[in-house]
């Protein structure tokens, strides 16, 4: 769970995204219980209504589900769903901004490609 | 429920509040934001029946709270007070007096808070640091368990760690025993996530009152080349503008449609959401929205 929020984006969305990130990273696995609303309130020091709003979005999208009287749990297919969604936006939100920075720096397509190759291998070796 | 209807408050010839109409729910944490002298304390003292409006009506659960024995015990007003009389009494006696006046006083919770805030109960109130005096005040506010608890710049002098402790405690207690909490501050940044709704007061008037998420969503920061930004903000309500070289940043008030957002992005404009702090500053600065 990240530790702080950014004041320039809707706080309930940030709550939602921080849980999604934890699911994608494997910090939360299918059928894991997610932190309770009151833990999230204390962790981020924010209003319970805001937490609830973020959590409800995750329930609506069936990323998490509720076991009555117990708490909220990660849906079995949540990682797959999130991977699909994030892959769709990957080009627009990650690749295009990268190119937008690379161009003014005068980096060629091939140079960027090589950098990606090196970084990719570095990760594989970890 | 609290209802202000066309409420004005005059001190002699000076209008502290003019024509304020506001409704507040029974549960929630409401930020009351305004600069010094904007009318925050006047607003809160009317609500707590410390004063009576010059005109208009204030009702709490349908009744006039002023000198009303049904309503007064339901309200706890925590503010930064400095009274000569109080300076001479011991902290534990100040707490005892507060306990006697509050029908919902939770003695066990009070003990817990005294330990948590490390309050020196044997010292005289006058011997406390500013931060510790504030800690005593908020501790009384929390232990009072009043259905309406008002903190008027209550954490002044507290250091960052103590403020965090207080906010944590406030939230934890709120989750267990929901109530209406009003919280006036100009430390907006730090408290931003705390509020379920916010009221912005300037020059004795309520500029806006909305759920804090909704309020933030009504603001948009637009950044791009000067001509593009100018073209986009034409005919819209602009809270602030500043240029930096060939770029310009403008803060708009009023929600944008998805279509408008798309059009902005296609024109190379960058959109983001201002913080509550930013909205507050832009709306209340000189040359701001209402002047």
UniProtKB/TrEMBL annotation, chain A:
Family annotation (InterPro entries): Tscrpt_reg_HTH_GntR, WH-like_DNA-bd_sf, WH_DNA-bd_sf
Taxonomy, superkingdom: Bacteria
PROSITE patterns assigned to the protein according to its UniProt record, in alphabetical order: HTH_GNTR
SUPFAM superfamilies associated with the record: Winged helix' DNA-binding domain
Occurrences of domain HTH gntR-type (ranges): 9-77
Key words, A-Z: DNA-binding, Transcription, Transcription regulation
A GO term for molecular function: DNA-binding transcription factor activity
A UniProt-annotated Pfam family: GntR
Name the record gives this protein: GntR family transcriptional regulator
Source organism (scientific name): Halobacillus salinus
TrEMBL record, chain B:
Annotated InterPro entries: ABC_transporter-like_ATP-bd, P-loop_NTPase
Pfam families associated with the record: ABC_tran (PF00005)
Keywords assigned by UniProt, alphabetized: ATP-binding, Nucleotide-binding
Record's keyword annotation contains Nucleotide-binding: yes
Highest taxon of source: Bacteria
Domain ABC transporter, first and last residues per copy: 2-228
MF terms in GO: ATP binding; ATP hydrolysis activity
Keyword check for Amino-acid biosynthesis: no
Protein name as annotated: ABC transporter ATP-binding protein
């Amino acid at each position: 769970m990240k530790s702080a929020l950014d004041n320039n984006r809707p706080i309930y969305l940030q709550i939602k995204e921080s849980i999604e990130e934890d699911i994608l990273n494997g910090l939360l696995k299918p059928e894991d219980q997610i932190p309770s609303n009151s833990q999230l309130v204390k962790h981020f020091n924010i209003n319970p209504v805001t937490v609830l709003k973020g959590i409800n979005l995750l329930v609506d999208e069936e990323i998490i589900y509720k076991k009555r009287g117990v708490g909220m749990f990660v849906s079995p297919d949540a990682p797959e769903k999130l991977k699909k969604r994030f892959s769709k936006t990957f080009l627009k939100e990650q690749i295009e901004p990268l190119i937008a920075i690379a161009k003014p720096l005068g980096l060629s397509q091939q140079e960027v490609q090589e950098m990606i190759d090196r970084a990719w291998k570095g990760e594989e070796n970890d | 429920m609290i209802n202000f209807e066309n409420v004005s408050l005059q001190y002699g010839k000076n209008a502290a509040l003019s024509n304020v109409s506001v409704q507040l729910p029974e549960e929630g944490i409401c930020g009351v934001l305004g600069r010094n002298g904007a009318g925050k304390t006047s607003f809160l003292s009317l609500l707590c029946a410390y004063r009576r409006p010059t005109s208009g009506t204030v009702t709490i659960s349908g009744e006039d709270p002023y000198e009303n024995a049904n309503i007064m015990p339901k309200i706890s007003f925590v503010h930064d007070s400095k009274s000569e009389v109080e300076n001479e009494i011991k902290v534990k006696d100040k707490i005892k007096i507060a306990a006697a006046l509050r029908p919902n006083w939770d003695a066990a919770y009070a003990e817990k808070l005294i330990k948590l805030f490390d309050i020196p109960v044997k010292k005289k109130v006058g011997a406390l640091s500013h931060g510790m005096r504030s800690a005593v005040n908020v501790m009384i506010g929390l232990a009072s368990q009043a259905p309406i608890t008002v903190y008027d710049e209550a954490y002044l002098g507290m250091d960052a760690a103590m403020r965090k402790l207080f906010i944590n405690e406030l939230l934890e207690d709120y989750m267990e025993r929901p109530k209406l909490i009003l919280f006036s501050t100009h430390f907006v940044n730090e408290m931003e996530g705390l509020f379920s709704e916010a009221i912005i007061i300037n020059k004795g008037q309520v500029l806006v009152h909305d759920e804090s998420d909704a309020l933030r969503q009504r603001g948009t920061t637009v950044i791009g080349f000067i001509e593009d930004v100018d073209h986009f903000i034409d005919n819209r309500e602009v809270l602030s503008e500043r240029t930096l070289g060939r770029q310009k940043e403008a803060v708009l008030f009023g929600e944008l449609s998805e279509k408008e957002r798309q059009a902005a992005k296609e024109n190379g404009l960058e959109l983001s959401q201002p913080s509550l702090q930013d909205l507050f500053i832009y709306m209340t600065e000189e040359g701001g929205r209402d002047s």
